[in-house]
Amino acid sequence: xxxxxxxxxxxxxxxxxxxxxxxxxxxxxxxxxxxxxxxxxxxxxxxxxxxxxxxxxxxxxxxxxxxxxxxxxxxxxxxxxxxxxxxxxxxxxxxxxxxxxxxxxxxxxxxxxxxxxxxxxxxxxxxxxxxxxxxxxxxxxxxxxxxxxxxxxxxxxxxxxxxxxxxxxxxxxxxxxxxxxxxxxxxxxxxxxxxxxxxxxxxxxxxxxxxxxxxxxxxxxxxxx
Length: 225
Description:
Elements: E1 2-7, H1 12-19, E2 27-33, E3 46-49, H2 56-63, E4 68-71, H3 77-80, H4 83-103, E5 108-112, H5 124-137, E6 143-148, E7 152-153, H6 161-172, E8 187-188, H7 189-200, E9 207-211, H8 212-218
Parallel strand pairs: 1-2, 1-4, 2-3, 4-5, 5-6, 6-9, 7-8
Helix pairs in contact: 1-7, 2-4, 4-5
């Protein structure tokens, strides 16, 4: 049985990933978080609480039983309160997880980034996401997955005005999002979660990057586990 560790469990994709374990699977799920999710967890899902992700000893203890990392950690600059705090979360914590997972000889690291992420981006948010991606790709993992979803569909417990506005206009102009613009179509969090699970359960030894429309295509595959 494969042991998957999830960080970023309280976000939209994190919750969708947890819900996939409502159906019994040949895998164990451990959630590592600062606080226990406020929603009901499927039977058998374990929670390990940690006060500080930068406490290397505590983090290593929390992660020691896993073999595949699902990282859905991410915030917004507005919620973080400053660019410095945002960078510490969206880059610093990811770098810390990469180091610890390598020390513990994890086989896979699977990360939810953002559409447009690049270290060369002129946008601070996307630049940070690009830096997190790079840190993961430099890690010594058998399997690496980088997912770059567009606007997410789903019932987010945390209200984000910008995201709601983007979803509204994307829905209206969806018919015009063809060809190279398909990558900007909204994608459901459940679809992203399935892609993460398929990758975490794979035996492939590779690095795969998924743009938004590629995430949808990947989850159309029939995979039994």
